[in-house]
Request: fold
Amino acid sequence: MFKKDFGQHILKNPLIIQGMVEKSALLPTDTVLEIGPGTGNLTVKLLERVKTVVACEIDIRLVAELKKRVMNTPYQNKLQIRVGDVLKSELPFFNVCVANIPYQISSPLVFKLLLHRPFFRCAVLMFQREFAYRLVAKPGDKLYCRLSINTQLLARVDLIMKVGKNNFRPPPKVESNVVRIEPRNPPPPINFKEWDGLTRIAFSRKNKTLGAIFKQNAVAVTLEKNYRVYCSLKNQVS
Reply:
């Protein structure tokens, strides 16, 4: 198991922040989604480049600090703040997502973004390093998993830069990486919910063959149940 660090860590290194902004290839007309803006170090740099930044923050103390930071500046009217849990909210329209996200929401957030419509151009996100490596892992790699196959099905994923612990305040327990995600548009012609269910079964038991996995009684019962539902929806005899 890799180390987990679910705390909020403020990105403080201006070079890393600038690098994330540059890799986003922002346009003056863009609306940028930022998740977990913290005290606004990245937010301000985004506001310098784009038309609007929509910042989603769950901590009302940080919301107050962010509002104070842009008050009476040219950026005040360019910043929209949404207070609440981004995973439980409908995402707004955006062209690009740039964020140092809370690491505990990494996996559900990636798929919430990739299944969002209309399509966005790209996302440049900070992740825990091992999570980032899982995103780009290839078949045969030790870290190749359901996350790898599903993410790469829906997007092109590239590692951008390594980020050490001392670039944050307070320093986290883990190393980090910036990743660039570009959705495949058009997406593959599949029902992603069905595909995700298949990969969930296929990767449910490490070091077991697919044959052994699909011979398990619980899996067979689930498949039969799903098949009956499918036949019912299609008005076919199962």
Summary: The chain is about 35% helix and 20% strand. The longest helix spans residues 217-233.
